[in-house]
Design a protein that fits this description.
homodimer; alpha+beta; Arc Repressor Mutant, subunit A; 3-stranded antiparallel sheet; 5 helices; elongated; DNA-binding
DNA sequence: CTTTCGTTTAACCCTTTGGTTAAGTATAGT
DNA sequence: ACTATACTTAACCAAAGGGTTAAACGAAAG
């Protein structure tokens, strides 16, 4: 995954909030939806952007789809930022 | 400056390249332009986005406008990322 | 097997974004 | 005072982004 894909995914506030939510534990798409004042379709699209960036992973559990955070790809961004900051 | 403004500014590859350039030292708008295959107007707009985000500062020197990196605002982004990664 | 529930995909609508060219502003040099 | 140089701003355009509603899909339950 490119740093471009990662940062683009991070550039929307709703998506960052979703990541913040998942920090405390995995949630189903529906549970995530409840937290935002937008349609399920909108959230579903955000989730797919985050998934394409590999910032989240999903697994189906029965009729639910559970999303979990994958923070490991943030490493690349951190490195770039650290380098930019110089030391 | 909000983290939103900062990340949005970072979300364009040309703007990130500009920041990378300025890491090695301050440059005039024209010198920055030379490095990119787009019009001066396009670069000027990128510079203004970076400036609004306080990621760069400018000072006029004669007929040149010199841009310098201001990496300090990256701290907030770093903190958010670090928190998300969970130490 | 049909229905219901959870979620995604399709089709669409605006707004934002990143580019262009052309015109404007500011400083330097003649 | 003019002209050239350095850069920005204005006006415009096509593409991308984030939202909506409605249709489709997958698994479970009746």
């Amino acid at each position: 995954m490119s740093i471009q894909t990662t940062i683009k995914a991070l550039s929307d506030p709703t998506r960052r909030q979703i990541l913040d939510l998942l920090k405390s534990g995995s949630l189903s798409a529906g549970q995530i939806c409840e937290k935002f004042p937008v349609s399920g379709a909108a959230i579903s699209k955000h989730l797919s952007v985050l998934k394409d960036a590999d910032l989240i992973r999903d697994t189906r559990e029965g009729k639910y789809i559970i999303y979990e955070l994958n923070a490991s790809v943030l490493e690349e961004v951190m490195l770039w930022l650290t380098d930019l900051k110089g030391e």
